[in-house]
Amino acid sequence: MNEPSRLPTTFRLIVTGGGTGGHTYPALTAVRTLQARLAADGRALDVLWIGTPDGLEARIAPAEGIAFTTVATGKIRRSANPLKMVSPANVKDMARVPLGVAQARKIVSGFRPNVVLATGGYVAVPAGLAARMCKRPLVLHEQTVRLGLANRKLAGSAARIAVSSESTLPLLPEAVRSAAVVTGNPVRPEVLTGHAEKAVTTLGLTGFDRRLPTLYVTGGAQGAQQINNVVREALPWLLERANVVHQCGPANVDALRATAAGLPPQLAGRYYLTGFVGPELPDVLALADVVVSRSGAGTLAELTALGKPAVFVPLASSAGNEQAHNARHLEEAGAAVALEGEVTAARLQNALGPLLTDPARRAGMAEAARTHGRPDAADRLVDVLLSAATGG
Description:
The chain is of the alpha/beta class and about 400 residues long. The protein is built from 17 helices and 13 strands.
């Protein structure tokens, strides 16, 4: 811990950010880690989360016992055409930002945090600006390779900018580069503690051939139609070479079950289909030899921390095309394969073939992935928060 004697008995933290899991879970993991660090030194943590009423954080923070409040926010609808940026909806939302800043300033002034942590999302802008107005140290955390819109707006106000990748540093404006520190993207600690055999037992994977590698396919909580469609087409080919755990999204189970019903019994036994993977995720990841997934920042952080070879199918509509940048960044390092544009069953097979049939190829990609992983990212981010709070 950074100079614990200079820290108050009760450390006060404002967290702001959210809208999606990509902004919410790193913040939550940092809060948990900071709480544990302070408790070990006999200190307490008082946290207030400033979020949006309809974002994921509005459910997650109260469920974790974290005080939660909201401020008015304005969402900017992006467009390549500058004229379209001046849409009635954008103008209306932009008018809400000064109100949000005024509300956030009142909250920050009343709470008097030792430090404010902003992890991105529209709500971070008013709270981050309020931190500067109230002369409270602001720490930004960026999950993706390139700074998101909110963090770009706040970069000049930040005491520290914690980034997830070395590759981000040269992309930062020169004026703020000296405030940047590479921490990695915090990964929920439970993700790193899975057991492969537990997944076999819990999920009843008695038909799996353990001489074959196991492929985990996931499209996120809702499933990804694009990934589901190409996996459906490639399914017999995949099952001849691997066991498959396929998390397809609750709405897609019936259609894929109908496809699986036509498989030969031996192949069908190697296919485990589920709408959603919950508490068993760490065990499923421990069992997986290769992963097919989207390339959101949280997914990348987890898979590289675990050293998992991956084939990424970036979500084309992600903000600022960040998923494609994330996937390309790892592909260039030999730590993943990125499938952009139109993804067909043939392209998926070409990408997976060498990984499923060549253990040495898998091991090489796993090692490359691991060198980009930062399982200690939460601890590094806590170091930055404590340093900023004490003026270190």
